Amino acid sequence: MKKWKGLAAFLLALAMSFSLMACGGSDGGTDTIPESIENLVIDDSVEYDYSNFFGTWLGEDGSVLIMEHIEDITNSERFMLSDANDELLASGNIQYVEEYGYVYAYNEHDGIAHRCWFDEDNTLYIDSFGTFSKVSGDTPGETMGDNADDLSPVDSGYADDGRGDLIREDGDVVPVLMGGALPFTNMQTLQSENNEDGTYYYADATEDGQIIVANTVFQSYWGNFDQTFEDYMIGCALTLGDTNIYEVQNVEENETYSKNMSYPVYIVTYTSGENEDTREWTVFVMDTDSYTYLYGFGSTLDAADDMESVYQDIFAGLYLSDGE
Length: 324
Hints:
By secondary structure, the chain is an alpha+beta fold. It has two domains: 133 residues, no CATH class; 144 residues, Protein Transport Mog1p, Chain A (3-Layer(aba) Sandwich). It is globular.
């Protein structure tokens, strides 16, 4: 009899444990789900319906979040978060993580992915970034563009540009060069400038300071001086080095990147500075007739080894956020 009582007690305890496990699953098991993930591996092969996320969202602090699917080059889901002053706060891929059952927003500037979720009112929550309400785009379950006639301006200093993006009413629209998830973590911001004419200059450095990543656009001045187009591209690339001491190593148009971007793209490599201040620059230079874009890496000579393939992989993923 004692044997059967012991077995019954064991079965009861086992049943209670399964019940507790089921209860934990009903609320998503958030006690075991990380709010953030470092160095999340982006896998575009994961099948997931991201349509609920697509569109433009407004944060409680006036920040603007844009989520969209990029088809032509990267075929991936991307986000861009800017503050009320149009300064870029974060950007990167959004990725469904099957292990935890949630979508994460991977910030390519610091290598940290943040968990995303919705409440019953379709308010979007993103760990560390805040809460967001949709102001233009699509209702859940629809794809971008289905509700184009329903888009309306919001009273926050922004106006709808008709494509599901918000633009500042007092500024110009300049496509942003984005993409190419950085393989570095704990990046430090060196410079972040957004100009009234829509141009910008962003520069970050790795934690050890050995690699600088710069992304900038300015109004094209090609044709204003007596120089070849190649010389113009070289001169633009040299501005990232910020020195009169330089040596150009190589310059050539990359046909693959030019085809991807629909504009001529040159890759310019050179060294800047001297002695312990010497850096080796590899710069993606593109001119659209209206604007000139630079995306470059400046590394110390010690860090330059074996980085070429990393640079090229990133260049291959670049795209204009609202380009044609």
